[in-house]
Amino acid sequence: MNSSETAQAHSLLTAAAVRDRAREMLAIGMAGGLEHWRVDLERLPAVATAVAAVIRDQYPGLAVPFHARWRHFSLDGVDLWGPAAEARDWLDPASRARTEFDLAIVSVLLDAGSGPGWAYTDTASGRTLTRSEGLAIASLRMFEAGAFSITEDDPWRVDAVALTLLTADDLARGFQVTAQNPLVGLEGRAALLRRLGQACLARPDLFALEDEPRPGGLFDAMVDRADDADRLAAPVILEVLLEALGPVWRDRLTLDGVDLGDCWTHPAIQRDDATDGLVPIHKLSQWLSYSLVEPLQTAGVAVTDLDGLTGLAEYRNGGLFMDLGVLTLKDPADADRPWPVSDPLVVGWRAMTVALLDRVAPMVRAELGVSAEQMPLASVLEGGTWATGRRVAAERREGGGPPLTILSDGTVF
How much is the mean pLDDT over the chain? Predict the structure, then answer.
């Protein structure tokens, strides 16, 4: 291995690297230097006004929770996880945290876009759900039923060995997939969870500090990186995840043997080292980082520097900036073509989405009269840009899909 290139590879496995290169991409776009995109920042205030209006509508008291998977474990305002977790007799706070890590990790990794043709009917409530909410409830119900456990007396856990044995058919049963109810990337999702199980078994130093190998073992790995006052910076959550989960991403870029995960190439980003052209995004890993904050807090770990993480480069946030005219395609016909996630058109869109979220967040706070401490980026996303992106999409397109057609294997968006 080349130690210099190894260090350069690890430099891309941070939220700071995502933010820096995203801002660079936006600056290039603003200067007219991107092949596919125009940028009109004069439309950004209108985006902020729309987002603020949605936040006021959903959260009149402006107490907006973090953008996290836990929000999707509710139906009609009823939390399906919290009361059940509170009622359980946990051995200690750490045991609950490991279980919540198990659930969040598996559920987030299954959260890539479902496609427009899939729905899940929840037997307990009778509700039929689609997209992210449907994926969340389906994964929660599988978890509750012990689909990821081989521990006889504890269905509420995810065992590494169980993951390695998971098949696409198993996932299809849990997610009610049929020829008439197709889920995008079913095989890719099952393979991703199998690789997660293999990663857990391969790294007991990260996944098995206090227990048998399981995704929830990362709780202990993160606690080990907290300071003496039990404080843990949110960007460290991401760094642990990127180290632990790097091997689970199939056919992704590597640099000197280091897995780069959700990192892609774009000719506009130029360097004179081995990171030339590389654009880290780490969307699912950052979504997961936000989703692990609350289990850590419940276990007594104070999470700091939440805004050290970035906004999420997914099609709700990115679609919002397209639909409201901040980002426009130079060739409108590009909206009708299918694009692989690795294409520079998509990479540029996703990177600029991250940078634009940083710009719109303070504008939203100003509209609402709140501070960054009162409404961190994680709350702006939840309240917020994600919800507004969904509303605008529903108004503009039947089915509320994104303004771009993305070819996905179920492990990116």
Answer: 95
